[in-house]
């Protein structure tokens, strides 16, 4: 077996520690960050920067960014193992990422995969039976090493072959973080990441609207729509339309950049304000949408009447509200 490991890197403390424990045994560690608009998206288009960050901050061999949005949206429609507390398909998500990681092993010259999973830390995906199921579902039995809880789990192939010294692995379990924090101090980590999860699909303020949109679209959601759902003000209008408004100039720019050519956009004609985009469009909702554009423009909301420009297929017209 090759003396190189692929680390499923979440940017959380546990995955960092798992990588450091294996790297300390003189094993090359390649950190792979899988991203979608719901997690890790800040690294989109910054692959070289991520690689540099991984090398300089943690001393790992390399860092890779892999966008799995399209495959992720497919499982999000109807995950085989269901959802967590919000709209998060945790088990199916982990299985997808591990399958993708497995497909990279030969390309990267790696022999096995490591994760920061801790037995009993999360009720849906990190109970012992869930961890075993994940191994079977991904075809990674014997090749999936969880260094923080290894002594509570079956010995893996890299341990049996002496590539990884089992006696240097740990037996952490449960939801506490005392041992992880002590280990971080021992290893000299300069920054301790927050324990909060980084997935927007677990966020009670954002996840319900994403779930509702998936319901309205029967799961047929494009990658650009998924990204737009993660920011801005969203409105489900009375006749069935779905409207997003930018909350600032940066969000306006993102909406404009992400919107397809055949989109219906709204903006005030002569006054600064939000850019509106119909994700689902019904002509009967135009006036209601225009009123919302006015309402959320501080310089327009108190005016008696304003012109709202409707932009569709490179043509413009105005309505007054």
UniProtKB/TrEMBL annotation:
GO molecular function, one term: ATP binding
PANTHER family: THIL AANH DOMAIN-CONTAINING PROTEIN, TRNA 5-METHYLAMINOMETHYL-2-THIOURIDYLATE -METHYLTRANSFERASE
Gene3D superfamilies, A to Z: HUPs
Transmembrane segments: none
Keywords tagged on the record: ATP-binding, Nucleotide-binding
Stored InterPro entries: NFACT-R_2, Rossmann-like_a/b/a_fold, ThiI_AANH
Residue ranges occupied by any Thil AANH domain in the UniProt entry: 3-151
Any Pfam family the entry gives: NFACT-R_2
Keyword ATP-binding: yes
Limits of the NFACT protein RNA binding domain: 232-317
Name listed for the protein in its UniProt record: Uncharacterized protein
Keyword field contains ATP-binding: yes
């Amino acid at each position: 077996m090759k003396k190189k490991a692929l680390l499923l890197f979440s940017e959380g403390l546990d995955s960092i520690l798992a990588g450091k424990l294996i790297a300390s045994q003189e094993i090359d560690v390649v950190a792979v960050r899988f991203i979608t608009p719901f997690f890790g998206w800040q690294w989109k288009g910054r692959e070289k920067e991520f690689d540099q960050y991984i090398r300089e901050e943690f001393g790992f061999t390399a860092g890779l960014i892999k966008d799995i949005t399209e495959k992720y949206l497919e499982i999000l429609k109807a995950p085989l193992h269901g959802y967590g507390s919000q709209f998060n398909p945790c088990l199916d998500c982990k299985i997808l990422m591990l399958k993708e990681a497995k497909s990279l092993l030969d390309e990267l010259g790696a022999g096995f995969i490591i994760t920061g999973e801790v037995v009993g830390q999360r009720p849906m995906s990190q109970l012992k039976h869930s961890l075993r199921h994940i191994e079977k579902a991904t075809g990674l039995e014997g090749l999936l090493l969880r260094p923080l809880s290894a002594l509570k789990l079956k010995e893996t192939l890299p341990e049996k072959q002496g590539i990884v010294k089992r006696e240097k692995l740990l037996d952490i379990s449960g939801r506490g973080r005392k041992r992880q924090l002590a280990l971080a101090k021992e290893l000299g980590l300069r920054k301790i990441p927050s324990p909060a999860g980084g997935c927007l699909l677990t966020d009670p303020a954002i996840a319900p609207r994403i779930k509702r949109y998936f319901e309205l679209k029967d799961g047929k959601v494009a990658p650009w729509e998924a990204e737009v759902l993660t920011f801005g003000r969203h409105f489900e209008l009375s006749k069935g339309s779905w409207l997003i408004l930018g909350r600032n100039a940066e969000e306006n720019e993102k909406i404009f950049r992400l919107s397809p050519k055949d989109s219906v956009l709204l903006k005030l004609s002569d006054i600064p304000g939000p850019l509106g985009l119909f994700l689902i469009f019904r002509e009967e909702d135009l006036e209601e949408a225009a009123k919302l554009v006015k309402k959320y423009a501080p310089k327009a909301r108190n005016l008696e009447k304003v012109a709202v420009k409707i932009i569709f297929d490179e043509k413009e017209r105005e309505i007054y509200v």
